[in-house]
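Narrative summary of target 7.
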Amino acid sequence: MTVAGISNADLCLALMRADTEDEVIAVLRSAGYWDDPKAWRLFSDNDNNFSVIGNQQAEAVAAFVEKIINSVDARLVDACQRAGVDPEGAEAPATMREAVARFFEGKSHPKPDDGRIAEWLDDKATTQGRLLTVSATGYEPADGQPSLTVADQGEGQTPDAFPETFMSSQRNNKLRIPFVQGKFNMGGTGAFQFSKLQLVVSRRNPAFLNGTASERDHQWGFTIVRREPPAPGSKSSVYRYLAPVELDGQEHCGVLAFSADQWPIFPEADETVRDAYRRTSPYGSLVKLYEYTWQGTKSNVVLSGDGLLRRLDIGLPELALPVRVFECRPKYSGGPASFSTNALGLVARLDRERDRVLETGEPIGGVIALADGKQIKLRVYVFKDKDAAKNYRNARHGVVFGVNGQMHAAYSTEFFTRSRVGLGYLKDSLLVFADCSEIEGRTREDLFMNSRDRLRVNPVSRQLEEKLESFLHQEGTLRVIQNRRRQEATQERLKDDKPLGDVLQKLMRENPILSKLLLDGLTLSTPFPPTGGGRGEHEKFVGRRFPSYFRFKDRKTGEALTRVAHLDSRVRVSFETDAEDSYFVRDSEPGFWSIRRRIGDEYVDAEDWITTGPKDGVAQLWFDALPKDAVVGSQLEYLIEVADPSSVDIFQMQLVLKVAAPSDGGGGSGIRKPQANTGKDKHGANESNLAMPEIYQVDKQHWSTHDFTETSALRIVQNPEAEGPVYDFYVNVDNKYLLHSYKQRGAEADLLKQQFIYGVVLVGLALLQDHHRQPTGSQNGAEPIEKVVGKVTASVGAILVPMIQMIAGLEAGARG
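Modeled conformation, tokenized:
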């Protein structure tokens, strides 16, 4: 078919090589399509399609990740069919990892740790990655907005299948295929909001076409998706796609098509060649998003930091198949590694580089069980410093929730500063990956939005949030590391800054109103309390890959444990083992917990528990609350099992909890409750119990450690070892407004400095006190108090010293 002197093949290639909206419009207008309303068909044949499309991902890279997920699914389905297996049949793989193991690793009976691309050699990862690619194209002066193209040698679609696949939403195309990610059939429509136009090109794998297939079924189909503004009388935009072909006597319903045994859908890029459409493929699909709008568009997409490659690592923390990323824009230069590299996912990348970048050399592990007994496996990565962390995650992604390798939601690093977590000194060095793949059915639907970019707000998500807070607060290794980080951050200036605390204490004694308003006592906390009770500093625990024992602490193997459990208390149970620290979180042959409660004559999965460790041979099990049916005098019987894929014998332990009345102390097991030491007044607000802070001076040389700028005044960090809301105060003594005051009154520099320090400290204490007096519920979702203090004191710092001097200069009886 030829229109206006241009063949369909040439038209498709021209659209592929266009990089701006204007170029696409010019090509289609010259072909006579752009201005012909009859040539455009409603997306999903729905004149209200914006209501679905406009309610997808809120962030551009999360939306783009869906395009890659579709390509991964297409490659897995293609491999399954080429192996002669019905993707919806009983012989189909049950999981993505099993599909990778069977069809890409040749393992007919995969083990649980097979199908992990982190174990692949680089050559194999690159070979497979070149069949699933992402490329960036564009040139000046395109406002720095690149076009992004995803191409795959997957199953592909016939031209006449476009309306039911690429151009549809909310249909059950892949609902009955167990090993793919895409279930909601949104078609990656979230990306429409961030791209002006979208091109789709595809050809079905000829091996899947039977003898009745038409000539058109063997062709490459292609179309353009565009957004049209609201028509008169309509409230919303509408999406349409180019479909000018007559099919079965019906006009304007089919996409354009052309014949070609091979088509250049794959890129090549190096020092001499930058071509996103150079390598050919006999079938597959290509999706191009023109002038895609996302943060980081002016960065080389394959470099580290906040570039596209690292954002893809976060969005796809456990990729099922490698993706090869290409930078094809001519404005960038460099060596071979500057133009193409493999994206393997965050977990695989950290697994390869952990000895170099992680504090512990491996992730810290734990397990959370929700109300339905389903388990979430936690991996906590502690980076050696915040500079190392920046190459793996940004502040928006402190906690990443993943399902089948794709990020479904995230908490920012501010989560670590919450009082219920108390890891402020590790805020810039932590990354938590919560693998929620075991969560299925209604629980998954209740937990995550269909857009797969955020959690719903409901009891299920609140339970997960509270369990995660509890795990991080109780995890012993994190507390040890944080205490050491705090000591490193303060010990150099502790001696010089100690008089600041003495002066502030004296100020409070001489001003009882300030003391009453701001503090609940004048006792200075001990900066670095002892952390004894563990192994000696020079003892090194060496664990076994497969443990020879796993038992209750101070009990014989197989010996049961019976203990009292108070209704209002947490229950902590300790275990001892010779398993290595990574036993439950390693990717290869990990151990797993099974915790079941006896109900009548049967054991059912227990709910609401958390595990940490093992660490140096000790693991912990926590019940934050007893079951709702627990009553005083009753007994709760649990069967606890630990095993791994190589186990011959399963370690079994019987736990009996005798339910007792609430304890007088209310803490139970010596564990501090989340709201302990806060108190309540008759209105439900927290009483004042702030303790005297430690105060440290920060000069310009150390700004980066505290994320200070020239206008910063104060940063507060919760003291990890103190009981109650105790904070360390870091004052910027090279604040530009303070330095300006020095120039005005050079002889009084020392006095001005003291006035500034105590001024911002008092403001910070006032803000903290107001925060802790608020009802606990009113603080949920509010901006973290650490950030509030930083913002307010930065504003006050501009006028603080002149204000103090002006007020001090007022005489009795002065009038404004």
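Confidence is low (pLDDT under 50) at residues 520-538, 665-688, 812-816.
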